[in-house]
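Quarterly update from the structural biology core.
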Amino acid sequence: MNPTKKTFYLIRHGQTDWNLQKRLQGSHDIPLNETGREQARVLQPFFDNHKIDLLCASPLGRAQETLRLIFPNWNGKAMVIEEHLREVNLGPLEGRMQADVEQEFGLDTWKKWMEVPEGSEDFAYDGAETPRQSNARLKKCLLKIAGEHPFETAAVCIHGFLLRRFIQDISPVQPSRVIPNGLIMEIECDLKNETFALKEIFQVLEEKRY
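Predicted structure, tokenized:
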């Protein structure tokens, strides 16, 4: 084991009714719907073929339920719940329909918020979390997990906005505007240098099924 290099599989949780409606969840604790539960179960064989030493999740129920369904035989071992893995604070957008936000604030502003073009790392709607803030939060949290727990590979279930911003920050690969439910990203964490590298993206789910 290389104590300074650890692997994270970052997973976006399964679908919720609000995802389906294109209603912005943020910190609202919306549970998985039946499609989301099925999506999580479909991911199980992928992880059956990968040795996972640690499970970590956001404090929001949809992330924890996704992991419990992917790893039904975790045998009662603890799941690490980290407050700083929660979704981006969406401020005034929380609980609102995406279409209403686009209409009220303008489509160009929405695209800037979603796509984070160069130079807009500090942009946010009033009261919301900027990309720079959410990326710093997630990096600090992953480094904390890597430093405090003895593992080689961890599965971490988090959220779409948080995941998209992070990948865009650490990699030249530009993700699609929306990270699909159930997407898996393999990340290498270098504890010594406090850096992260995107190794691979796994689209296990067939979107047409859902």
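Residues 46 and 193 are 30 Å apart (CA to CA).
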